[in-house]
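Predict both folds.
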Amino acid sequence: MLGTCPSSPFLKKPKVRSGKHSIITSDPYVSVCLAGATVAQTRVIANCENPLWDEHFCVPVAHPVVEVEFHVKDNDVLGAEHIGVVEISVDKIISGSKINDWFPIVGHYGNCLKPYPELHLSIQFRPVVDNPLYKDGVGAGPDYIGVPNTYFPLRKGGSVTLYQDAHVPDAMLPEILLDGGSSFQQNKCWEDICHAIVEAHHLIYIVGWSVYHRVKLVREPSKPLPSGGELSLGELLKYKSQEGVRVVMLIWDDKTSHDKLLLKTEGVMQTHDEETKKFFKHSSVHCVLCPRYASNKLSIFKQQVVGTLFTHHQKCVLLDSQAVGNNRKITAFMGGLDLCDGRYDTPEHRLFRDLDTVFESDCHNPTFQANAHGPRQPWHDLHCKIDGPAAYDILTNFEQRWRKAKWRDSRIKKLTTWHDDALLRLDRMSWILTPSSGPIGDQSSSLCNEKDPENWHAQVFRSIDSGSVKGFPKGRVEAEDQNLMGVKNLIVDKSIHTAYVKAIRSAQHYIYIENQYFLGSSYFWPSYKNAGADNLIPMEVALKIANKIRAKERFSAYIVIPMWPEGAPTSAAVQEILFWQGQTMAMMYSVVAQAIENAGLSDQHHPQDYLNFFCLGKREANSIPSESSSRTNQPIENRILNKAMFGWKTENSLSYSMSRHNFC
């Protein structure tokens, strides 16, 4: 771990002023860099030549470096100007002794700067093997503290329902035995969401990357449909809003899609955002398209990049549900499933069958041109339902994002004012139970009995910054108290990354990761080391394996990704992602291979004995269709594809949980 000492601030030594009327134009900040990757940044102090940052960072590191670099820069509207750098040898840090001293700032080429500025730093390194946080596996039992130093702490006394795919028919999957002789109950995600929406009395909040009003949630019902359950999602939400339920939707705004008088485009990502917003126009449903907001603290160029190319992939449905007696409580559905076309599927993952019934008007496959005769793209994903205190953390996330989005919408369009907020004030509704206020991590409530053996500990993680939420503290001290990290003038919640690192470092026997993409740790790629994909996950997995090889302990990592991401495999975007994934895999295998060689095991083991990548696929048996089947009219190339294997889509769960990653 790399950190600064609370008692020792970053400080640039006073410069000799050229005259009492000199104009200060420097806006300095410091970037901490390892192997070209930026791991921490101070805030920008405007118009100051003698800055006092007084900031503290605790940073996980997994970088092959010989020195730590502290770059002093001058912030500018169009970017940043390099002032100088302090370089500290890793040999001085690796011992674990605290370094607390002044260091000269030198120029980019090692030249001395005048009037000899200096930077005061305090650094201490703590090896993973010396940290008790990682010694006992991922943790269990009543004293488990979860992932520390995150915005949302571990919540106890809740319940979690797990879902595989949008629907699982009865008896389709093998029985899974649990402790005590019971069996795992396979639940039906979209059917449960539909029933929960129908039964909501006060609020329905939805946030998604894509939400399509034409989607039908229940297509193969396992129980009688409630009133309104046969409607499409859009009609159902209108129906509930007419009953007096507050329906609020926050959907990602694809800036390449338009629905105006002379400009109508579907959008590159085909999320139906404009179409869905138009459907709810003039209704009592509050539907807001929300782009990925870039902070105005960023340079103009970065604001454009973030607003156009970046997005949030949060997928949540929040609503009130039945609690004890006449009370209500908040229930949250979240995970990897968007409520849009192409997502309804079962573990059978049909390619051509039932296209005119279950998948009518929903034969989604971006790999091929539109074709109602298939093959459809199979969709494998996980989701969950959360009751208890953790559900209110997901509600907090929605409220923070909504208030930021509505503030932006109000400022630009002048359509609403603050007193016209669509969110309900739950603190004024005594019959909706809420966790009691108290110290962070201590939220007891009557929602669940903490001693119930069926209770779950649940913790919410996310990746988001102050450009996209309203409610983060502005000061660095307050942000640090809430386990948020400052990055220049942004405040960032990096708890997903924190949770990944903690879980990987704690794993004792194996790691299983399933994701739509798998790339990162670009600072150690064979080439393109400055690509900017600096997350530690691939390197942490590789180093975990290397450590186990040195200890002569058995360990395996299984990583499941699609054969190619969603889209035409020959397209430039998909090819680029595949290239970056190839760089990531090569980097990881090189680390594992080197560990095998160093341990003298090259004649006994291969890197694939420890690390493997897999692609899921579906093969559907060829059959002769009947004369009445619509498939008799399909083109010959699609009938040939009937025999082929298709990689299916695996979508990442943004937002908060590691529901698809097992660490043991």
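Second protein follows, with its predicted structure tokens after the sequence.
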Amino acid sequence: MRRTEPRAARESAALPSQRQLKVGEQLRHLLAAAFLRGETHDPLLDGVSLTVSEVRMSRDLRHAVVYVSELGHEALRPEVGAALGRAAGRLGGRAAREMNLKYAPRLRFEPDDRFGEAERVERLLDEGLGPDRRGGPSSADEGEEG
């Protein structure tokens, strides 16, 4: 049987390997610690509380997408995103040294809007169903219990 999908499409749909997951999690911890200690060498990032929620590594471990959110703000402010972009090379080099990687991963910071999206869905559910109907037993269940 011949595959009709291009190789790149098959690989992008594949689940990450154990190595990708392990390196991604190590990198997440390293970046979170660097942000917490203010080791970004950018005055704009000093005093900014950043959360690193996920790091997705490429198969060759040369690229990483880092999902960050800024505490106290709905979305990542543009100036904070720009500062992260400027610090990416330095942080990637540090990661390669501390994690003994063959190549310094090229970091791309992306805003993590999952929390905002969850709040939006919660709000829509509250508006659509009303707070008194959410999560409780249905009216048919209440009649049977009595």
